[in-house]
Amino acid sequence: MNILKPDAAAAVFRDFVKNEIESEGLQVNVAGILATSDPASVTYAQYTRSTCESVGINFDLLSIDPDSAKNVIRQVNNDRNIHGIFIYYPIWNDARDAELRDLMSPQKDVEGLTSHWINKLYANDRFDGEHKQFKAILPCTPLAIIKLLEMTEAYTPYGLPFEGQTITVFNRSEVVGRPLAYMLSNDGATVNSFDINGGIVIDKRSSGKEVVPIDRPMALKDSDIVITGVPSRNFEMIRAEELKPGAICLNFSSVQNFTPEAQEVAGLYIPRVGPMTVAICMRNALQLYRNYHQ
């Protein structure tokens, strides 16, 4: 089995951030807002803390109750000594979480998930600022996935990185799957995007707005890259016989979405993304500091 684990790539990004902070003597301060007892969120908060400390970012974890989340977000927005904010989800696990996300200042949004940044992504607007002088912040997990794929031979060295590639993504959440599909499409790929209701084709070269339905067998047999992020054991795992020969397979779910046989026959298998996601968050925190707070 040909496996690419994210740890080495993540270390490269962490080392870059650490060297920049040390060489310039920067004081980058990030606040984490933890208003849930969800075990995965608590673990993520602890991992964020340790990674921040390892690269020289000052991290303050605020453990609060959900009812005080709005006030705390407003307070950290207005605190000039805080340069970046993490919010750990789910808090309410409903539409109120999206409302809380958009209370955060985009200029402190380390994960790049506020509507300000997501709308720029969907419009393929890659810059921010009054004079378009800053690169836009991109959401951490989708960007982490793209950076890992760019380390493989999946991208074309001429033109856009994924020009001519067909990519299937099983996950159309507003946090990962949908932004990822548009990022890949913006970079030249034809993307088959699946959720519980089925698949659609996103091809910005022909029509980014037209919804073309596609089924799973047709999508998989043509896909150079298959990306999955379905956190449910009810998901029908992707089988070896469904894959195009040599396809690159990437799983970012906490639940395994590929059968062992599919992992074996993949041209390259990437089992997880987590360490790379946090490393990209560190880079985003440094970018926010330089763009808006330095």
CATH architecture of the largest domain: 3-Layer(aba) Sandwich
CATH level-1 class of the largest domain = Alpha Beta
The helical percent reads 25-40%
Strands ordered across the widest β-sheet: 9-8-7-6-10-11-12
CATH topology title of the largest domain? Rossmann fold
Query: Could you tell me how far the N terminus lies from the C terminus, measured between alpha carbons in angstroms?
Result: 46 Å
- The parts where pLDDT drops under 50 for at least 5 residues are none
Question: What is the subunit arrangement here?
Answer: single chain
How much is the radius of gyration in Å?
A: 19 Å
Structural class: alpha/beta
The coarse overall form would be globular
Average per-residue pLDDT, rounded, comes to 94
By DSSP, the count of extended strands is: 12
Describe the structure in your own words.
The protein is an alpha/beta fold and 294 residues long. Helices cover 38% and strands 19% of the residues. It folds into two domains: 24-110, Rossmann fold; 142-274, Rossmann fold (3-Layer(aba) Sandwich), CATH 3.40.50. Strands 9-8-7-6-10-11-12 form a seven-stranded mixed β-sheet. Strands 2-1-3 form a three-stranded parallel β-sheet, with helices on both faces. A two-stranded antiparallel ribbon has the order 4-5. It is globular, with a radius of gyration of 19 Å. It starts with 6 loop residues before the first helix and ends with a helix. The model has no long low-confidence stretch (mean pLDDT 94).
